[in-house]
Design goal:
- Strand 27 and strand 28 form a beta hairpin.
- This protein is an alpha+beta fold.
- 24% of the residues lie in helices and 38% in strands.
- Helix 5 runs antiparallel to helix 6.
- The chain has seven domains: 91 residues, Immunoglobulins (Immunoglobulin-like); 89 residues, Immunoglobulins (Immunoglobulin-like, Sandwich); 87 residues, SOR catalytic domain (Immunoglobulin-like, Sandwich), CATH 2.60.40; 97 residues, Immunoglobulins (Immunoglobulin-like, Sandwich); 82 residues; 174 residues, no CATH class; 39 residues.
């Protein structure tokens, strides 16, 4: 055993000598991330204690791959270094395990305790939009480098950043500029900047710079000219305040600049007149030099076009009295005449009905031609005067008129089609409601009256639209149809209140057909049709609300699966007396034949044309009666499924059913007594009754005798 232990120890020792042992893992609480810069100059290190370690040796320096000597620094596993200079440092440690030193482990760290320099060449510049842009040169940081800048703002020169009134505009500016917005006009703003390096050292504060945002005129100034014969009246009005130190000048064609108002202060209106006698047409320049109440420059110019001669023109398209549809080009020629004409300012097209309606402004397509594409679908059909209003810069205008007819059948056709489409959707809802009412045997007078009117309007509108005649009338009918279908649907409400559903299994139902008295030669066909047509019976209780109030009706629906070819059938329904006492209690929108008033009825139908046949109970239930009817589960009262036979079968009350009466279906008394065994049972019953009667008489007599004997004693 000892030999084995010594052998294993020798093998481990030999492996350590040959291959070496991994050193301990190192960490730092002061510089936890080797990739980041820290301003702490006294780094602290910790390392793991390996199993069997008896000593540690470590070293801190600026060499990456240094291996500590083999002189023990003790058994402790932490070290706090004295202050170190800025730069990249490396800590190395190794442990002694089993008398052998491990390989060295290494840990790198970055130290930067030196703050960056303060930013230089700081400038504050007002911008044209009333803001202030502060900019500076990039600050220098030797070790980690600048990370971001902090910008301070105050309202006094050489302010202290620790002053409570100082505002930090931003503490994380990556670039070297910042724009402050929403400033107060006329106020002075002071700024200082500092840099922050990647070790979070705060740099020096820059010198203070200041400026004011640009000040703008606070007034809204307008010019109003008015020409009367040869006198031009001009007024200048200020909104938002008064004018200060205002000088007003005018320059007319052929004359020098002339002052017409001088050094006017505290005025919001300046009015003057200019004599234009002998002045040729041309541009008249008005210049106002003025300030507002905070000495902002409010100078402004206005040009009046003196043009005594109006423009002229002519239509190029469309021709007179043309019938227009879809998109047409409106095009005119327009020129401005006279000496120094002001020129064509705009050409506007309008169509004149009760009032003028603007079509739009034309685009100049050549020196003298102006054009606009008019989508006539935007105008009602009819006859109009289309106007081209030509305006020059002198305020003169001329109107050119052209008669046209707009006949956009496409627009009207689209409108009618849209209304018929909407009416069709409402029609579908009304038809569905109609089917439900008819299935329930209800002929609601108001609903069917409105529906008839709606159908009539719908048919007329559709016919006129198809022939594309009297389209205005078709539009009225289409609108009436839509509204009437909506009105019909709102006049009555049908809500399914309860639903009882049964699907029949042919194999199990064949015997039921026999029990019902169906001739044996027809049982197979009836069972086969039951399967092939997926015949089912559903009893619905519907809640009806109309102008007369609320009531409930029971509807029986016999349904079939869809088929793709004509399949005429005869359906015989044997109705329990607990559901309907007599055939007169049954109503249906489909004609039926009464075979037996018990009742037994027959329908003729083509399964391809309709996938169900319905009939209803004539009785109108109250809510309580409807609940009781549903809870009784009337489906269970039906002794036989619907009997579905082909149209070739000879079906009548005498052939389809053998003794199809109450005695056969419900086990009547006459059939019971037709059996000889039944008389034996009757006689036995009579004897039993007589015997019981004699026993009772004997007991009664005995009791009486007992009482009399007891009294005598």
């Amino acid at each position: 055993m000892v030999k084995r232990f010594l052998f294993a120890f020798f093998v481990l020792l030999l492996a350590a000598v040959v291959f070496g042992l991994d050193g301990p893992t190192i960490s730092s609480s002061t510089h936890p991330d080797s990739g980041l810069w820290y301003k702490e100059t006294r780094p602290a290190f910790e390392w793991e204690v390996l199993d069997g370690a008896t000593a540690h040796s470590y070293a801190l320096g600026m060499e990456a791959e240094t291996a500590p000597d083999e002189i023990s620094e003790g058994i402790g596993n932490s070290f706090r270094a004295p202050p170190k200079i800025d730069g990249l440092w490396f800590f190395h440690v190794r442990s002694k395990v089993g008398g052998q030193w491990t390989d060295a482990s290494h840990y790198s760290l970055k130290i930067d305790h030196t703050a960056p320099m303060s930013p230089q060449n700081v400038e504050a510049t007002p911008t044209d939009d009333g803001n202030i842009r502060v900019s500076w040169d990039a600050a220098f940081d030797e070790s980690s480098g600048v990370d971001h800048y902090v910008l301070f703002r105050a309202f006094q020169k050489d302010f202290d950043i620790r002053d409570p009134a100082t505002v930090v505009l931003s503490d994380n500016i990556v670039g070297t500029s910042f724009v402050e917005e929403e400033l107060v006009e006329g106020r002075t703003y002071h700024y200082r900047v500092r840099a922050v390096d990647k070790a979070d050292n705060l740099g020096g504060i820059s010198k203070s710079v200041f400026t004011k945002p640009k000040s703008f005129c606070d007034l809204e100034i307008s010019f109003t000219p008015s020409l009367e014969q040869e006198t031009l009246s001009i007024s200048v009005e200020s909104q938002g305040g008064e004018l200060y130190h205002a000088n007003f000048f005018v320059t007319v064609p052929g004359k020098e600049r002339e002052m017409i108002a001088e050094n006017i202060t505290y005025a919001s209106l300046i009015a003057r007149e200019v004599d234009l006698l002998g002045v040729e047409d041309g541009n008249i320049l008005f210049e106002l030099e003025a300030e507002d109440n905070d000495v902002d420059d409010c100078s402004i110019q206005f040009t009046y076009f003196l043009d005594r001669v109006g423009p002229s023109g002519g239509w190029l398209s469309p021709p007179e009295n043309l019938k227009l549809l879809d998109v047409v080009e409106l095009k005119v020629e327009a020129v401005d005449s006279g000496i120094n004409p002001s020129g064509i300012k705009s050409v506007e097209f309008l169509y004149r009905e009760d009032v003028d309606a603007s079509i739009g402004f034309a685009e100049r397509v050549s020196e003298r031609e102006f054009s606009l594409d008019w989508n006539t679908l935007s105008a009602p059909n009819g006859r109009y005067a289309v106007i081209a209003r030509i305006l020059d810069f002198g305020g003169n205008n001329v109107e050119l008129s052209r008669s046209v007819s707009v006949e956009n059948t496409a627009l009207l056709l689209s409108e009618i089609s849209g209304l018929l489409s909407q009416a069709g959707e409402e029609k579908s809802k009304a038809e569905k409601l109609k089917g439900t009412l008819i299935a329930a045997g209800l002929q609601d007078a108001e609903f069917f009256s409105i529906l008839g009117q709606a159908d009539g309007n719908y048919a007329k509108a559709s016919d006129l639209l198809e022939r594309q005649v009297f389209l205005e009338t078709a539009l009225v009918h289409a609108l009436n149809a839509k509204e009437l279908f909506e009105q019909a649907a709102e006049s009555v409400s049908v809500e399914r209140y309860n639903n009882l559903y049964v699907v029949f299994e042919p194999n199990s139902e064949a015997e039921a057909f026999r029990e019902a008295g169906l001739k044996e030669e027809l049982v197979g066909e009836a069972a086969s049709n039951l399967q092939e047509l997926s015949v089912s019976r559903r009893i619905e209780v519907n809640k009806i609300s109309d102008s007369n109030g609320v009531f409930y009706v029971a509807v029986i629906l016999i349904s079939f699966r869809d088929v793709n070819e004509s399949t005429p059938v005869q359906i015989v329904e044997v109705i329990p007396k607990t559901v309907a006492a007599n055939a007169s209690d049954i109503i249906s929108s489909t004609d039926f034949e009464v075979f037996n008033a018990d009742p037994v009825i027959k329908f003729d139908a083509d399964v391809m044309e309709t996938n169900y046949i319905s009939y209803a109970l004539a009785k109108r239930f109250s809510k309580e009666e409807a609940d009781a009817f549903a809870e009784s589960n009337p489906n269970k009262e039906f002794l036989v499924p619907p009997i579905v036979l082909g149209s070739s079968a000879s079906v009548n009350s005498g052939i389809i059913v053998e003794r199809f009466d109450t005695e056969k279906l419900f086990g009547g008394v006459s059939s019971f007594f037709s059996s000889q065994d039944a008389w034996v049972f009757v006689l036995a019953g009579v004897l039993v009754v007589l015997f019981l009667f004699l026993v009772i008489v004997v007991l009664a007599v005995s009791i009486i005798i007992f009482i009399l004997v007891k009294r005598r004693r």
